[in-house]
Amino acid sequence: MQKEAQQENPVFVLGELLVDIFPDYQRIGGAPFNFAYHLKNFGMPVRFMSRIGRDAYGDEILSMLNRNRFSTADIQLDADHPTGQVQVSFDRNGQPEFDILDDVAFDHIDFEGCLPVETPFSLVYFGTLIQRTQGGFSRFQAFLDQLDPEIFCLYDINLRQGTRQPKVIEFSLEKADIVKLNEEELDYLCREMLHTENRSEATVFSLMAQYDIQLLSLTRGSDGSELFLADHEHFSVSASDVNPIVDTVGAGDAYAAVLALGYLRRWNPEQILSIATMFSASICRIEGAVPEDAAFYQHMRNMIGGASNG
After folding, report:
1. With bands split at pLDDT 50, 70 and 90, how would you rate the model's confidence at 4?
2. From 71-75, 103-107, 213-217, the region with the lowest mean pLDDT
3. pLDDT per position as a tens digit, 264-298
4. How confident is the model at residue 115 (pLDDT cuts 50, 70, 90)?
5. What's 183's domain CATH number?
6. What beta strand segments (E) does 184-245 contain?
7. Domain membership flag for residue 4
8. Per 3-state DSSP, what percentage of the chain is helix, strand, and coil (rounded to 5)?
9. Residue 42 forms part of a structural domain
């Protein structure tokens, strides 16, 4: 039976919260935080849970969370491990490359004590990076196992350094109702989970059937994006014209935020694709993954208000 979305309940986001260190500047980030930040600025109720170090970066993060009205009660403080850090560089094509510091605070999130399991949520968002260690994976696995099975789960794969672990990815797919991934990640799943080099539409639907996925979102960069539904419907859209591109960091997280919003508010697939494409393109026009000025979201809020239920 398809689960009934409960729009009035908050989205629960858990995962890494870190500092992205670019060649010329720094930004607070991490895919789960970027996702939560966008949803909050769209007007959705959000709870965000992570772990940071008791250090200067941690102090900076707490100050930023307070300014943006996030509850710091959901942020664990770690005296033994530093706040997560990522060195961001760009290849000759302008694509970001990430060097992620090992054994940091988010690798030690205490999922067991983060919330009562009966707390009502409309959706739980998670990725792969917080499961990169055996301890992190075991703790997170136990947390997901105790969730009410009626709660939607969105798995944004985001394969990064040290996260290509089939056991982790397979467990996450088994828990997911919605999956977001890019072409490289889909290639990996086809090879490792389906043991095929064929990345056809039929292969995608086979993957969805194997893991009981209701909705799969495939982003393809300059080639646009696609949505696959469990009833074998398939939708696609061309990429937005982005000029100029400042950087593409966080474009996928922006896309995921609109995907979640549209799904919970029952937009039709064409609306989800159109608005997600527009918003992710707007992120490519700024430095870093999230805007510093909340006025950036006004156009997006106007579009959300005009979107209709499917």
Report:
1. very low
2. 71-75
3. 999 999 999 999 999 998 888 888 788 888 888 88
4. low
5. 3.40.1190.20
6. 215-219, 225-229, 234-237
7. no
8. 40, 20, 40
9. yes
Domain-embedded: residue 3: no
Q: Sheet containing 26-29: give its strands across.
A: 26-29, 18-21, 84-90, 96-100
* Residue among 74, 76, 68, 15 at smallest CA distance from 39: 68
Residues sharing a CB contact under 8 Å with residue 55, sequence separation 6 or more, in sequence order: 82, 83
Q: Which residues pair with 98 in a beta bridge?
A: 88
Alpha helices by DSSP H, listed for 106-146, are: 134-146
- Residue indicated by tokens 């943006």: 68
> Domain range holding 213?
11-306
Cβ burial of 170 (10 Å; 0-12, 13-18, 19+) is middle
Residue 6 in domain: no
Q: Which tokens sit at 249?
A: 């960091």
Domain count, the chain: 1
